[in-house]
Amino acid sequence: MIYLAFYRGEGRFFSDTLVQRITRSEFSHCELFVSALPPLPGQTHRCVSAVGKHGGVCVRDITFRPGAYDFVAVPWAPTDTFERAERHLGKGYDYWGLLMTQLVNMRRHTADRWFCSKLCAKAMGLADPHTYAPGDLKRVVEEHNRTYMAAQELAETRQAAQRPRVTHGAPFFPGSGIFAGGLRSAREGAANALSHMTAGIGDGGVRANAPQRVAKRTQGLPTTRARPALAQPSNVVPFPGRIAR
Length: 245
Hints:
By secondary structure, the protein is an alpha+beta fold. The chain is 32% helix and 18% strand.
């Protein structure tokens, strides 16, 4: 997982306080790193960023002092975000871009030089990376995270709606209106029909049910009642001793 560490600063005027005042944010710097687990204060991670006192883009091990950093996960960032930032390793610090984008808001910068939030935004694929101060980048990333999580929840809800539900032992597909693979229901229906057919079975076979007579009404005549047929040799159907299931 890609993470950003936003640094609050230690009160140094040019590197911390001035940046915070110009950008109107509590953060003066940011670092990008990769971690399999959520980072904790006191841990050391290998980070990439652009640092003025180190001459520009550099990779270094940083121990996150408690209270000095805020961590933000970036689940939507490309998996090679760290490598994208490393490609600019050794390039100079963009003092001109930092002043022209944050101090006077002219959106001017030097293409092959970097400051911290510009490098991180570029590595994550954000447009116009030179326009982001550390505090701006944190707000934008958190907004993107909320949108990303909402989209994930919506996708999971739609996928769950398409999965079959198990109803009385048979899977049911929402929207189809039918049971899929309802073997249990089919077997129960066949068993009931078979039980009805074999009722009164004897050595000679199965007694057939005669069709009922259709009731007719005429003037002054009552309705004819249906009478069951008697077992006659003509309506006895031979039935095998063993019934196939």
